[in-house]
Amino acid sequence: MERNPYLLVFVAIFFFAVGTVATMFIPFTEENLMTPTPTAEYRKQVVNDNPQSKAAKGRELYMQNGCMYCHTQWVRPTKTDEKLGPVIRAGDTYYDSPHLHGSNRTGPDLLWVGDRIPDKAWHIKHLKDPQSVVAGSIMPPYKFLSDEELDALAEYLVTLKHIDNPTDQSDPQYRY
Amino acid sequence: MLSSAENSAAKNMLLTSMIWFIVPALFGGLFVAIKLVWPTFLGDTSFLTYGRLRMVHTNGELLGWLSMVQVGAMYYMIPRLLGTKLWSEKLGNFTVWMWNVGLLVGALTLLAGITSGVEYAELLWPLDLYIAVMVILVIVNIFMTIAQRKEKQFYVSVWYFVASILWLPLVYIIGNIPEPFLHLPGVHQLNFNWFYGHNVLGLWFTTMGVAMAYYLLPKVTGLPIYSHRLSLIGFWTIAIFYVWNGPHHLSNGPIPAWLQKAGIAPSLLLIIPVWSVVANMFLTVKGNWHLVKENVIVKFILTASIFYVAACLQGPFHSLMTVSAVLKFTHWTVGHAHMAPYATFSFIGMAGMFYIIPRVTGRELYSWNLANWSYWLGTIGFLVMALDLWTAGILQGFAWADGKDAMTVVESMRPFMMIRIVGGVLMVASMLVFIWNIMKTVTSGKVVTMETSKNKKPVKLTDTKAAKPVQA
User: How far apart, in whole angstroms, are the C-alpha atoms of residue B228 and residue B167?
Assistant: First the structure.
């Protein structure tokens, strides 16, 4: 193999394929990753089914301005997330395109922010001038967004809410 | 327009990579860090907001600086390791143009908020396609160079380079499947996202950087690599285990327990390739530690090795579910995320340029003293930022677990965010000194004979401060 590039390439790609199939494709056989929950159906109804709706436009703005770099939408079954509402289920974001789970929580988690703060006017005021609503906030002001855009973004935020799922068979809400 | 002069592709790639080192670091890194203390810094223009600048930071540093410096080094090293010339300098120079133009367009689209919304893979699909074509052109050039090789035996760097340039397009394409055309149900897309985010580091930046280190260290020290077998163990273990790691980013997430474990167990096994690479580096220099003092390049590479071990011990540690429960989503992750790309592979990148640029321009490095300054400013700056962020992250995680209010935690982070700026300033200063040094080398470094001179005598460039007279 120290002289044969083709063998090297073949073996390297073979091992790559093994890991990829195991961690990326076998999960497609998991039923609960492939079953949308009522929350997902609600999100689909307000965003995916109406690409021209305010909530859909708000979601675009959320992405374009990188909200997900400081706000997660990911409540884990851990002690740190106890106050953030129901633990996320695999099916909750089934239709999200792309996912906005985020990776850093510089600001609060927004998975269920619509349940916590259902007041659109609050969100608009907060987006325009965060410090006027939340003292000590380090969120940048989004004054450059038009009234229409602010309205859309706020509309999206209030649709981020939990819909009860009577058939939820997942583990009870364990905490570390 | 496209030069066919020998070494021109490597030279142009390396020199233009510096633009993508400093600009995203200053605007996307330092300014964004300042915004975490003073959110209205730079006003409230849309393209200067936190979210937009951050996208330029990650894409610019990773797809720009790091990828370019590594491909530039490959254009220089592969022909020398195979006793031949680069197959096509013209094609190489074409990729230099493609890279810079593509990144410029990419940066402008991201600043305008045109994004796919997938972290680390924000560029829109036409740009992804463009990058895929660009990488294929690099592959063609390298494989044609291999086809015309004189040296039949592959040195370990060749293994790493060849495998990396094949892994990159695979990782890139799987990780950038355009969401509008092929919808992956929520959690699967999250899994694909982190497959990309993790493997582009492990099967591209890491393996390219290791290839560079394996080339540079014996060259600048004049010592043979300690163990060829150890280097091959390192290669195959990373080839086998790395690709499994994506799911460990989903620790405690809405995925089945087996998948989390399938991501965590290989993370622990990665200690083998890391250890083998770093042991090989240290055992090569063992007994000649004075080189660390005399030779900035050796100092950069060994420091990078230490940070590489640290990053790869930290990674498996906080991928464990109980540790992740505290540290995930905190500032700790940000400190960790800078360690491999900055303190390991950017250090190897800078070391590579200190070695290669004098050889492709036929000029002595302008100042080894300034190179030493880049080293210390960069190392201290990184340590200030990283130790600060790790401390902040631990406090943040336990404060949440304690049930503290989200805003209380944000406010308590303020002093840490201020110290982070200090680290950032030092890191940017290190980059500025580095770029100044390289620019002065190119424009007014002491001229020595070109490596391509007809008499084929190797250039005796000295890689140390205590420069001996240069032999023509």
Answer: 23
